[in-house]
Give the backbone structure.
Amino acid sequence: MQWFFDWLNKLYKTFIVAERYKILIEGFGNTLIITFGALVIGVVIGTIVAIIKVFADQNGNRGLLRPLNWLCNLYLTVIRGTPVVVQLLISFFIIFTTAKDGTWVATLTFGINSGAYVAETIRSGIMAIDIGQNEAGRSIGFSNLQTMWYIILPQAFKNILPAVGNEMIALLKETSVAGYVAVMDLTKAGNQIKNTTYDQVNPILLVAIVYLIIVIVMTKLLGIMERRLRKSEH
């Protein structure tokens, strides 16, 4: 049992001495802020891009839809074609060079990145809805946009919830690179404690365990939401 007490003593020296656990708490908070903030931005951008592309497909790529659809395609190509780390570095060191807090820069960057993937997910969900739903909306006097907002999107979001949930989990893990732009996220917090204490094991293991717990909680919450949505359909 001596090894166990030695291990507890090492944990005490690593995290409690000099209150280093506060660094982990700060990193944990920043990770959640970036994840959920980026998800909201990604869903908003993704929804707008998806609606524009669906309208362009259904009504013909003409008029105002033509340049908007071109911009959406350019956005999807650029964001999907470059690594998120490179996008993060460009945002912090080229675009927002005067930013003192990297957290909001990281949140915006991850949100823009996420929007490119959420857009195709939402677009697929919209296209899966029967065309009769659109015709029904038009028959009661709704415009194309009203039909999309009040009839199509609510049904589409029920279908794409699992995919959006998976994107949220992927986004959580992607935030581990936020430390590249001086953001004290969970991974950087663990790495800083490791470098300070020369404990090469416990800080990294604790970070991995925290990520795992967050993912398990998110998965459980998504499962509950899916079951409630299925019940609401009956």
